[in-house]
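Limitations

Structures in this collection are predictions, not experimental determinations, and the ligand pose is part of the prediction. Treat each record accordingly. The example that follows, with flavin mononucleotide as the small molecule, is included so readers can see exactly what is and is not provided: the inputs are given verbatim, and the output is the predicted complex.
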Amino acid sequence: MSEQLPDGETRNLRIIAERIRSRRTTNLFKNQAVSRQLVLDAIELARWAPNHHLTEPWHFYLFGDEMKAASVDLIRTIVTERKNADIGEHKARVAAAVPGWLLVTCKKSAAELLQREDYASCCCAVQNLLLYLSEAGVASKWATGPITRDPRFFDLLGIDSEKEFVVGMIWYGYPKMLPTQTRKDVGEIVTETD
Ligand SMILES: Cc1cc2nc3c(=O)[nH]c(=O)nc-3n(C[C@H](O)[C@H](O)[C@H](O)COP(=O)(O)O)c2cc1C
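Predicted complex:
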């Protein structure tokens, strides 16, 4: 039980607030593997996201070394096609240095409202996952670069693009450093009504 203090001042609230506030996006990771069990635990927690109609629309693809290597090659190819070989090589090198790769997809739905709600749930699930990893000292980057929409990526993973779309590629690992971030003042984003 938390000690009885005013709202926002209990020890548990301070801990969760600090976790939410201090989670940061990075793609500068140490060359150190993250335990697969930790990520599976994070996925177990992710699925407790709010989810209208309990559709459980998410799927998680936890990459092994072969899939990671194939994805790095595909990033090189895609960026070379879109930009040039130098930038392609650079992006491939950055990607190859990322220790952990987890793809999150959402079930496709023909019903517009259901699709929006399912995507919202998937985003909540990703945040659950990122916060859990962050608490374990593991940083991440939620990425939606061109590879996440490329048919060749779906083929690699055996994903039917008629049935699923990518919510995010989650790169994760122990951070070399974490950037700082800011947000607008709360007063700018809140309207209080009578
Ligand atoms: C849906 C979504 C897609 C994102 N895609 C990218 C991306 O493709 N590349 C990237 O560098 N960051 C991406 N990000 C991370 C944001 O850039 C990052 O959250 C933002 O800079 C705020 O930083 P913070 O996460 O440390 O608070 C994405 C975040 C979300 C929620």
